[in-house]
UniProtKB/TrEMBL annotation:
Short name of one Pfam family: YajC
Protein family per UniProt: Belongs to the YajC family.
Any single GO CC term annotated in Swiss-Prot or TrEMBL for this entry: plasma membrane
Subcellular compartments: Cell membrane
Topology with respect to the bilayer: Single-pass membrane protein
Organism: Zhongshania antarctica
Protein name per Swiss-Prot or TrEMBL: Sec translocon accessory complex subunit YajC
Keywords recorded for this protein, A-Z: Cell membrane, Membrane, Protein transport, Translocation, Transmembrane, Transmembrane helix, Transport
GO biological process: protein transport
Length: 112
């Protein structure tokens, strides 16, 4: 009956496995991908966060700013975590300091 079924022979150890340096290559590839991701995504984002934190910390009364929602106004009051913006003559809105997007050059509100 053995003539219908061919006998299977065991392969030698290592012949079917990965080449000797494949594990080291995979680890190196993962390190390289993390390094690339760090320089493309993480590092620029941290730089923007630091610049925004410095801009928010340097806010002063009388600065003309734009919020993240696009509202333009002049800073009238500054608290630890809130900023009051004068939008028009009798309208004053209160925002969180982190919602300030940019500080505009002086005279921008009059030019608009």
């Amino acid at each position: 009956m053995s003539f219908f079924i061919s006998q299977a022979h065991a392969q030698t150890a290592g012949a079917a496995g990965a080449p000797a340096g494949a594990d080291l290559f995979q680890i190196g590839f993962l390190v390289l991908m993390f390094g690339l991701f760090y320089f493309i995504a993480i590092r620029p984002q941290r730089k923007r966060q630091k610049e925004h934190a410095a801009m928010v910390a340097a806010l002063a009364k009388g600065d003309e700013v734009v919020t993240t929602s696009g509202i333009l106004g002049k800073v009238t009051k500054i608290d630890d975590s809130y900023v009051a913006l004068s939008v028009t003559d009798n309208v004053e809105l209160k925002f969180q300091r982190s919602s300030i997007h940019a500080v505009l050059p002086k005279g921008t509100l009059k030019a608009i």
